[in-house]
Amino acid sequence: MPVRARALPIALTAALLTGACTSSPDEGSDPEEQVAQIVTAAPGDRLTLVADEDPVAMAASASRTFFDEAGVVVLVAEDDPAGTLLGASAAVALGVPLLVGADGSGVDEPVLAELERLGTTTVLAVGDAAPAPAAASSSSSAASSSPAEIDAEVIGVPADPAAVAAVLDQELAEADPVAEGGEVAAVAALDPAEPVALRPEGGRGGAAEESSTEEDGEADAEGSLPEIEGAEPLEGTLVMTTGTPDALAAAATARAAGARVLVTGGTTDPRASQELISTLAEDDAEHVVALGAGFGAEEGLDWKLATAATGTQLPGGGQVLFPGRMMVALYGHPETGALGVLGEQPVDAAIQRARDHAAPYEQLVDATVVPTFEIIATVASASAGPDGNYSAEGDVEMLRPWVEAAGDAGLYVILDLQPGRTDFVTQAELYRPLLELPYVGLALDPEWRLGPNEVHLVQIGSVGIEEVNRVVTWLADLTRENELPQKLLVLHQFRVDMIPGLEQLDTSRDELAIMVHVDGQGGQGAKQATWQVLHRNAPEGLFWGWKNFYDEDIPMLTPGQTIEQVDPLPELVTYQ
What mean pLDDT is reported for the chain? Predict the structure, then answer.
């Protein structure tokens, strides 16, 4: 937990807006004649990170990010839900920063430093941040003993909408109570042109509110805000935040500066938020600010943001495959039905058949179900062929009509490689033009990866983990260089020794979702045993596929049985 200095005294003239107001503004000063300057500042870089773990520090950092000068600032206490929400309402209505870190008798050191930087002359302290009468009466002696204090007037107001509206001299419309967990989203929706008074659901107030329940909040104010000269709104700045409570004040400061604030729903990966992807693509924000400690731990935030800004989304939405999506695939080759059900009909009929296979799962899983093609791009061959590799490579232009028709219809496509005696990277490179499409992934079929003196159907093939990791690097680099959504990399397997060293698989590349597809066939008992064994021998962080064979399974599971009996639940179910 970060350590910060606490409770440096507020050196100031305090006007507490309750029934017991006794203090007055500095003599010789007429607030009505003062004009408080507000100057916003657009971030200098395309991406700015505000990732403090402490809400006090985060609020100060946000103020530094969005404001160069602010003659008026709103101040709230850290553990005061009612005061903080109402303070956010006030800050956005005024167009000034919201700082956190006061307890009625003093403020945190980062707050004092930020007030000094901003040149603040008036502080509106809301709720528990409002100075108590005793503190106000002794402020002059505290001022002389603390060099860190600044010369500003503090206007204290309870967490009461009427009291805040009175000191703002604005009408605050009543808003629906804000449920716990929805505070940042409520602040993000604040409109400076139509100010409202945010209040927590269930009366979650702080100490000041609890101690002043009998006050009517409408006593004469002995202090008043100066005229505020508004700043140019930062319309070209977009702020993304996960919505955690520690970002509330920072989000309010962003809105006060005129920046748009978008809550990502908890994700720190921009590619995982459909709304953020659409917003980035449509609005073309010049500057993006990532608000929250979680973004500091998100590896590759810059390239993920660039990918999100393309606006390209996967079938089913977003740019990240899992969780939240289940694929249901037809497997085979476009030119023959002998290799799987996909090739038993023309492309349009195959698309409809894929949809028909996917449809029953929509009622069975709490995820978006995406019809999928797994197309065998290179077919294991009994003969060596002209190149001697025992693999027949399909022509890209032969495959393209199927791939593009599937993509246009909202299907995902997986290209399956059966490389014979060549290596997977060499074959994958042949299909780069198709893999550069955003809805196309890749599958490796080690059963058909031969050694130098091996032939198909005599040995069961295998591939070393070093070669698999070369594919990981190659496909991940292709994905990042082309700013593509996350790609699926499937590893077909039904024996542990088909991919020796799997525990050394490189799972560090977020450009990819890597999946083990369990291809066992026959009786369900044997298939389930294979499923469990492969799970036990796999590294963490993988996704899983299950195959239903029409002719070889005894019996083939129905969609309902697949969901009930295959545990853990697979992300891909393939039909062959």
Answer: 87
